[in-house]
Amino acid sequence: MEYTVQKLGKLAGVSTRTLRYYDEIGILKPARINSSGYRIYGEAEVDRLQQILFYRELGVSLESIKDIVTAPSFDGAAALREHREKLLEKRNQLDVLIANVDKTIALTEGRIKMSNKEKFEGFKKKMVDDNEKKYGEEIRKKYGNDAVEKSNAKLMNMTEEQYAEVTSLEAEIKSTLVEAFKNGDPASDIAQRAAELHKRWLTYYWNEYSKEAHAGLAQMYVEDERFKAYYDKEQPGTAEFLRDAILIYTGESK
């Protein structure tokens, strides 16, 4: 079956402008242009649009989606299985949060009692799942499954006070790092304070702290584009600056 832009847009629930834009950037070209100049899409294009919308739902950028779906090695069936796994992960996260909200509603209505620990379980579970999704493979490869599982368990067992403290500490690291970056010296007192705060933050997640592991993590902040983008979001070069400060702090600098 074939579709015009209007028909495909209506079928998929997207605007004709979106489909034309996908054509312009080369992520979804029509099968052909008919004699009247209209874009015509076939079954292959319908399948690709489905894949694109799956990836968009998972928060993948159009640039990355284009690289994925236009690669010669792209496997549609394998991609669908991956989509299913990611959607199940997302559903599990939502189920935990929904259950947490339901409990809180019941608590406010006086139907149940809920410990302070339970109030934060949904948020902590989402944090664990998000970290696994973004960095799990790299972290497990670097530190091993046992270390990661212990770290996740430590997070899930955090008290309300500890959860508040670690959240506050993360914000303090960022603000201190911004000020330290201004003077450009990773050995300065304020840069070393940022490194110290980072160590304190790690101890909330790690069962055991070591200078070598701390330095290795800092190096990964620079080598892994996702970590690098997180620290460089406000000021490019921040990831390298933090890495250098931590290497000095741990005595692991070359």
Could you say what the CATH architecture of the largest domain is? Orthogonal Bundle
Structural class: mainly alpha
Overall shape: it is globular
Helix content: over 70%
Number of domains: 3
Number of strands: 2
Kindly report the average pLDDT value.
Answer: 82
| CATH topology name of the largest domain | Globin-like
- End-to-end distance, in Å? 64 Å
- CATH top level of the largest domain is Mainly Alpha
Give a structural overview.
The structure is a single chain. The chain is mostly helical. It folds into three domains: 5-69, Multidrug-efflux Transporter Regulator, Chain: A, Domain 2; 75-156, no CATH class; 159-250, Orthogonal Bundle (Globin-like), CATH 1.10.490.50. The protein has 13 helices and two strands. It has a two-stranded antiparallel ribbon with strand order 1-2. The chain starts with a helix and ends with a helix.
Notable traits:
mainly alpha; 2 strands; two-stranded antiparallel ribbon; 13 helices; Multidrug-efflux Transporter Regulator, Chain: A, Domain 2; Globin-like; 254 residues; globular; 3 domains
Could you outline the blueprint of secondary structure elements for this entry?
Blueprint: H1 5-12, H2 16-24, E1 32-33, E2 39-40, H3 43-57, H4 62-69, H5 76-108, H6 116-119, H7 121-143, H8 145-156, H9 160-183, H10 189-203, H11 211-223, H12 225-232, H13 238-250
Antiparallel strand pairs: 1-2
Short description:
With 254 residues, the protein is mainly α. The protein contains 13 helices and 2 strands.
